């Protein structure tokens, strides 16, 4: 399906909160599915690959350690061989014994049995940076994407993505848009991502590229969703319905527009936007929030914990 068709589908959703597609009948019980659910590692790009490599070490750990089957998707990159060589060297240096690139660069590749098998059997899947639109052209609603969902939901596979690979984690993916001095109407384009995060829009390289206004412009279109801005060399780790953690060297900016008042409906394309009542939370590296420890009786903190609970919900299995 083309960009236009995917974006038309998003447009038809309007401002209704997205309910992920109903999954097909499963071969395991819901209890087992919950027990095996994997983790998401969403990286703001430019993660350290030469020194401490905190984020990549954490991904390898969450995937099962040195013996884990690590599979690297380079389909977003314009120079996939070069990107693969870089990550292959890093993961091998970190002790990974079974690390392979997924031979998937085109939509035809995403239907090949060997590609689907590699993803279905992976312990950890790492999506590199590049262009999120290029990746989604290849993988959207493909057998490969379905295999990733089954691996995550049924086998506990850890799914990580950096830069463009982080953007595709969302159902509502920020596809295009240059940062503006302040939020403006219709200056960003949305597309459909892989739907591991149904309730949030992710932007990356956040502080380094001054992308707050870009994220706010996207949220003005979809005020029912959370905005997640991730700094470079920083990762947001989601343990579904359990915890949210930030590792690396920067911070995660969490914007909650759900109680916002805006002039979006009255504004014309390119107009400056009024956005009143936004809530912004800054989660620095080293922070970990366990949802079971939610301080329900501390009223000032309730909106924050509510936002975290929404953020920690992953999408339904697709395929």
Distance between the first and last residues' Cα = 17 Å
Envelope shape: globular
- Radius of gyration over all CA atoms, rounded: 19 Å
- Outline the biggest β-sheet: 8 strands, mixed
What's the helical proportion of residues? 25-40%
- Count of β-strands: 16
Structural class label: alpha/beta
- What number of domains? 1
Please describe the topology of this protein.
Blueprint lengths: L2 H11 L16 H7 L3 E4 L10 H10 L5 E5 L6 H14 L4 E4 L11 H8 L3 E4 L4 H8 L3 H13 L2 E5 L1 H4 L4 E5 L12 E4 L7 E5 L7 H10 L4 E5 L3 E6 L3 E6 L2 E6 L4 E2 L12 E2 L2 E6 L3 E3 L11 H10 L8
Parallel strand pairs: 1-5, 2-3, 2-4, 4-5, 8-9
Antiparallel strand pairs: 1-10, 6-7, 9-12, 10-11, 11-16, 12-15, 13-14
Helix pairs in contact: 2-7, 5-7
What does this structure look like?
With 319 residues, the protein is of the alpha/beta class. The chain is 30% helix and 23% strand. The protein has an eight-stranded mixed beta sheet with strand order 3-2-4-5-1-10-11-16. The protein has a four-stranded mixed beta sheet with strand order 8-9-12-15, sandwiched between helices. Strands 6-7 form a two-stranded antiparallel ribbon. α9 links the parallel β8 and β9.
List keywords for this structure.
4-stranded mixed sheet; 319 residues; Rossmann fold; 23% strand; 30% helix; 8-stranded mixed sheet; alpha/beta
């Amino acid at each position: 399906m083309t960009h236009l068709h995917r974006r038309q589908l998003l447009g038809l959703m309007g401002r209704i909160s997205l309910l992920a597609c109903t999954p097909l009948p499963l071969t395991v019980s819901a209890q087992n599915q919950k027990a095996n659910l994997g983790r998401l590692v969403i990286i703001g790009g430019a993660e350290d690959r030469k020194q401490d490599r905190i984020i990549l070490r954490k991904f390898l750990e969450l995937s099962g350690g040195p013996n884990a089957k690590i599979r690297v998707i380079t389909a977003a990159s314009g120079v996939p061989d070069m990107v693969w060589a870089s990550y292959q060297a890093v993961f091998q240096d970190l002790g990974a014994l079974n690390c392979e690139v997924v031979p998937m660069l085109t939509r035809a590749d995403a239907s090949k049995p060997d590609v689907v098998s590699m993803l279905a059997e992976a312990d950890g899947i790492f999506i590199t940076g590049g262009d999120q639109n290029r990746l989604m052209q290849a993988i959207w609603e493909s057998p490969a994407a379905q295999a990733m969902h089954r691996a995550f939901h049924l086998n506990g596979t850890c799914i990580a993505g950096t830069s463009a690979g982080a953007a595709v984690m969302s159902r509502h993916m920020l596809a295009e848009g240059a940062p503006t001095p302040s939020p403006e109407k219709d200056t960003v384009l949305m597309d459909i991502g892989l739907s591991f995060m149904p309730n949030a829009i992710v932007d990356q390289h956040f502080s380094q590229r001054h992308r707050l206004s870009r994220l706010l412009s996207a949220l003005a279109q979809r005020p029912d969703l959370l905005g997640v801005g991730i700094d470079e060399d920083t990762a947001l780790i989601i343990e579904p319905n359990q915890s949210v953690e930030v590792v690396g060297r920067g911070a995660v900016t969490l914007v909650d527009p759900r109680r916002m008042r805006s002039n979006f409906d009255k504004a014309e394309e390119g107009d400056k936007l009024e956005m009143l009542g936004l809530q912004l939370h800054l989660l620095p590296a080293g922070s970990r929030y366990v949802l079971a420890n939610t301080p329900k009786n501390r009223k000032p903190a309730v909106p924050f914990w509510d936002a975290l609970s929404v953020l920690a919900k992953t999408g339904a299995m697709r395929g």
